[in-house]
Amino acid sequence: MKKTFLKPILLLAALMLLATTACAHPTPGNQETKETKTEVDKSTLLTDTIEVMSQAMGRTIKNVVIKPDHYITNNQNARFPVLYLLHGAYGCYSDWSKKTDLHRLADHYGVIIVCPDGQDSWYFDSPVDPKMQFETYVSKELVEYIDSHYRTIANRYMRAITGLSMGGHGALFLAFRHPDVFWSCGSMSGNMDITQYPDSWHIKDRLGEQAANKQRWRDHAVCNQLDRVKACTLKPAQNIIIDDGLNDIFIKNNIAIHDKMVEMGIDHDFTVRPGRHSWDYWVNSLDYHMMFFDKAFERGAELMKEEAESKVNN
Known about the structure:
By secondary structure, the protein is α/β, with parallel strands linked by helices. The chain is built from twelve helices and eight strands. It has a single domain, classed as Alpha/Beta hydrolase fold, catalytic domain (Rossmann fold), CATH 3.40.50.
C-alpha cells in the first residue's frame, strides 16, 4: 500500500505548483459486527451508480464509478487518476463490477474506475442513429462530468481507457482520435478490424450496411486510425497496451495491427497469452493493464511536476 499513499501526495504537489487520530478499542463481543458494518458502509460509499445527461443524445446514460479507499479515508484534498473501463457487445455498465473486484484494483492502485454503459454502440458517433453518439459521450461529456463531480486530476497524463472485445476496439478508437483526453489506452481481445464482420454485433445498425457504406466502415475501424497516432504532435506519445488470447476469435486481427504498428514505428506493448474470448481471460488481463497504467500514471505525475516547475521558473 506504500505506493498508493505516496501517489496522491505527489499528484497534490504537482497541482499546487500549477496553481502557484484517535484510537478506539471495540468491545470484544461487538468487534465482528462493527467491522462487518464498517466494510459494508465503506463499500457503499466507494461505489456510485450515476446517470449522466448526454446533450449529444438527448438522454441520460448509466455508469458505475468505483473510488479507492483513500478517497474517503486519506487527505480529503488528494486527487486521483481515472481509468475508463469499457464493456463488450451485449454487455452493460455493471459487467466489470460483477465479474471482478474493482474495489481491490481501485484501492491498490489509487485510481478512480469509471464503467460507462456502451449499449452496443461500438463507442462511435453513429451517422445513422442520433441516439447513439458514444464517441462524444465518453470522450467529452462523461470525462467532463467525472472531472467536475469527483476529485480527479483533470489532465491527459492522468486518464487511461481500456476494455474488452467491443470495448477494446472502443478504447483504442477513442484514445487514438482524442489523444488530448487519453494519454494511456489498451485493448483486451478487441476487434481491430470491424470491416471483416459486416453482419455481426449490430455494427451495421450504427454505420449502415457495409456494401453501401464501405468508406464509412473503413473510417471507423481501429486498424485505420494508426495514421492519426503516427501524426500526433502531442508528446510524449501515448502509452498503448494490446493483448489477446491464443484461441480468441480476434487473434489474427490483433497480430495484424501489432505488425502494422511495428512497421510504422508506433511504440506499444503487445502480449499473446493462452485463452479464449471469455471472462476468465479478461479478468486476468485487467491485472496486467492496471500495472501498465500504474506506471504511466507515475510517469505522468512526474511530467506534470516538471511542467509546473518549468512554468514557475519561466
